Amino acid sequence: MTLTPDFPSPDDWSHPDVPMTPPQAGWLSQTDLTIARSQLPIVYVDAVPVRTDDSGDVIAVGLLLRMGDHGLTRSLVSGRVLYHERIRDALVRHIEKDLGPVALPQIPTSPQPFTVAEYFPMPGITPYHDNRQHAVSLAYVVPVTGDCQPSQDALNFDWLTPEEACSEGVQAAFVGGQGALVKQAMAWVGRLL
Amino acid sequence: MTLTPDFPSPDDWSHPDVPMTPPQAGWLSQTDLTIARSQLPIVYVDAVPVRTDDSGDVIAVGLLLRMGDHGLTRSLVSGRVLYHERIRDALVRHIEKDLGPVALPQIPTSPQPFTVAEYFPMPGITPYHDNRQHAVSLAYVVPVTGDCQPSQDALNFDWLTPEEACSEGVQAAFVGGQGALVKQAMAWVGRLL
Amino acid sequence: MTLTPDFPSPDDWSHPDVPMTPPQAGWLSQTDLTIARSQLPIVYVDAVPVRTDDSGDVIAVGLLLRMGDHGLTRSLVSGRVLYHERIRDALVRHIEKDLGPVALPQIPTSPQPFTVAEYFPMPGITPYHDNRQHAVSLAYVVPVTGDCQPSQDALNFDWLTPEEACSEGVQAAFVGGQGALVKQAMAWVGRLL
Amino acid sequence: MTLTPDFPSPDDWSHPDVPMTPPQAGWLSQTDLTIARSQLPIVYVDAVPVRTDDSGDVIAVGLLLRMGDHGLTRSLVSGRVLYHERIRDALVRHIEKDLGPVALPQIPTSPQPFTVAEYFPMPGITPYHDNRQHAVSLAYVVPVTGDCQPSQDALNFDWLTPEEACSEGVQAAFVGGQGALVKQAMAWVGRLL
User: Fold this and answer.
1) I need a surface site. Which of A59, B37, C76, D18 has the fewest CB within 10 A?
2) A83-109: per-residue pLDDT in tens?
3) What is the spatial distance between Cα B130 and Cα B120, in angstroms, rounded to a whole number?
4) Nearest CA of chain D to the CA of C123: how many Å?
């Protein structure tokens, strides 16, 4: 496996707007990965970071702000599950990568996701799409109690009320259907109006 | 509504073995409650307290130990939902009542329970029964991170591994089918073998 | 227990706009029920009737049309769980009562509801309210494959697309927050846009 | 893409004991697939076929019987999700492949699985393992109402009661942890004792 620094990393498939960096040793080479991406569904996780009050009621949703090809975009914490990695460990890793080491996430006890988002390369089959690949993403609401610092590929990380996150203005800033995923998450926690 | 201190309290219906104390003012009188209990299903919550590791994996289940009519019994945190009370507030209240004020529970963000346990006055209809009433109980797994002190009506509160909690010996110490509920909880978090 | 034909029946608490008729013998008397309704949360079920295609995808949502105090209203299949009645039997009974004997519902295998709707007598605590009572309603999506005939207290029963059912016009015709419940159901089946 | 008939087919990864046949044109070549299987988690579905009564209660679980390397084995309906294939279409396809064209499955309305089974190449990380690959399998309970005919790679298809399916004897006939998955399914539908 020979990789140049210009090649995208499988670990950094967290979002279409994330600049690519070389992969960790031992994982799929870029050539192999490119082949796989064009022929196999890829396992993903989506985390909806939330703040809750003492009774577990969601009071805020955390959204990343990124500079994409077509302007500023909002996104969830999202990324690939690696070979030999448990889903819960993938959630920990992607939250730490996107929100920093002291976000203190409360990873769900059950592997049962609130939904499964199927991102197809072609839009219209489901509410989700991703022109790079077919991703099958297990989606979880994850309370975080610590301090969140967006990683360097994001411009900002903001806490919005459930109502703001579901508003037309914010919804328009998502790509690939992640706005619908936020609305599904808010429906599941009982905060969709 | 006239109540004497000897009358059982609707708030303390947490478990058959809990000694009864006078109710809070403003709630159902004992006479009315006795009528209701014989003619209406009663809304309950069951909480399965757990310890988790940093990736959300359940490493221990918390069980109360009580002295019942027929010897020592194991039980979950369980109790009635009051009029005008949200489910999540009932969870907070019963956990504080049974595990003390510094248990620091992480109440689930979603009202979707992992199961609904239907306790019938007659055994055999479902795995659950309660000879006092027909209770419909919404069951949740609740991670607690703080210090747990059993309330005075319990002899002890112990952390068991999922395997121990599902073992025959411990299962035999539950009444009313709560052992089955523990197994369902462990199945849901992926820890049933 | 003495009942006059003018007294409302506990069995017919399916919807605020349903005319009341005498209860079945053996259930709660009206006086007792009135007391209970003012002091205890009442166990309910809400069913969202749907048509699906062969792959389980929801293609239509079934909504009742009723004449209420303030004009035409849309509603789900909804009603009380009786003493000694299983949740799944209450679903069967209310679907048969509202949609007729040949609706052929596919009752869910699991008691896990997609959400729990807490209807409070006072609006604003949750998205749901019911000025008659505090109802805790277990909500299920129920595919029906047969012919649906609205019962005589409903004017009509119509199949709408998920998009129509979530549209502003239709949403405005619901009372008590059942429009939000339809949106939650559509979010859960992956049909909320 | 050149394939010889001796090469295993990606479509037939339904079970370790299934004899391999050439893949459909257009999918991943065997070489590419072998690489992918050794470096990426593969998306799977597991279906637990059940018979229900009119109220949705599970009365029987359907299990395949196969001749494996180490004797007779029991298995669920299980298989890979293909590129560009929706989860619900993969469920339809694998059920038709394993149970025949007139099984008449009721595919779930929601993509929310009852659990996610993570099959690792190494045993002990989760209750599931598969020495061929790392599979992330979305697990669903699927009522089937029609006639089930096991495909030619299976010896038989039998309906067992939930109690039989969870009994020690039957559990010992599963490989890779699918027995635990059956128990989780029965716990989720309320039929685990």
Assistant:
1) A59
2) 999 999 999 999 999 999 999 999 999
3) 6
4) 29
